[in-house]
Request: fold
Amino acid sequence: MVHVRIAYINLRGRPDRAERFLTHNAAELDASAIPWRRVDGIDGSQLASSTANELVAGGIIAANGLQDGYAPHTWGHLGCASSHRSLWEEAARSAEDEVLVILEDDAQVCPQFGIRLRHVLKAAEHRGPWDVVHLGFNTDAPLTIQLECPRMDVQLICQENGLPIGLGAPFAVDWPQKPYEGETLLARVLEFHGLCGYAVSAPGARRLLEVCLPMSATSIDGTMSRKLREGELQALIAIPPIVLSDNDHADSNTVSSASSRYNEAVR
Reply:
């Protein structure tokens, strides 16, 4: 029997996002009967006084930097990576039969989330091996999965009004009033973007710590996606998703954009 806990990441300086998270999710999380709590995220701006050598010594960035083709890290990227790492470290110390579900504070869970989460995790037990089970994804970037019969790679593109959703464009999450009653596909992930919600086991957390830090891509989710392509991680994803976010770059503490609060690149 798998024991599940839920934690959501929220910066102390963003009580507005915590309030929105609770508005969207508190009732559903309470109804799930799964223990859940808020954890302080690590503010990237608090790392800005660190030297490059300190960041390398802390295991966040690589001593030789990023390969060509990757945008520089921002302080927001480093804060985000540090926040997720702290929860991976917690999960890595837990019992082998425990699973930690990590949500970001812009996540919105689906109706009957507890029931559907348990269904996904039970199905994942029979699909192993896995390090991570993604419960959702960003809607503004391709998602590549692997089908097994016949074996083929499939790329999914989210659309709105017949057009692909633009990069960083807010997505209005609209869960149906009637709970979903169809089958949930658990697919192998080859490439994904976003960490709005995912489940990690103790062995999976240890694997994430081993292969994803220091980061080898601009962001921590980009690094995880790279390690999937290289075969160093095993991940499943629930389709349809049971967690989504509005993914509004204008309100982000992570992405590099003119409207982002933390768009300064790490030098």
Notes: The mean pLDDT is 90. Residues 3-251 form a domain with the Spore Coat Polysaccharide Biosynthesis Protein SpsA; Chain A fold (CATH 3.90.550). The chain has one domain: 3-251.
